[in-house]
Give the backbone structure.
Amino acid sequence: MASLGVGNLGEFLREQRRQAKLSLRQLADAAGVSNPYLSQIERGLRKPSAEILQQIAKGLRISAETLYVQAGILDERAQEAGAGQPPGVREAVLADPGLSEQQKQALLQIYESFRKENP
């Protein structure tokens, strides 16, 4: 079966799953998808819907938007503009290799809550 051009998503999912210390089966159970289907997504053989990505994000405890960007469903620039954050903050946090995905999302959530608090 040929790859559907979602290899980056699959690699990203595999890395997030490993960082979360979850087996393929554990994540499949948490996300409510079958083990073979999740395996095919990780190998770039299947292109999941936004709904499935949301379920996987929940299982990984990361934002669905992060997976949408990886899957090409959501443009990263649109995500930044919609978040109400000045350019650069989100990019810097997301690009930091020293942070886990959960830490990145926590930082962005805290930052956004401060921005809402101080208009």
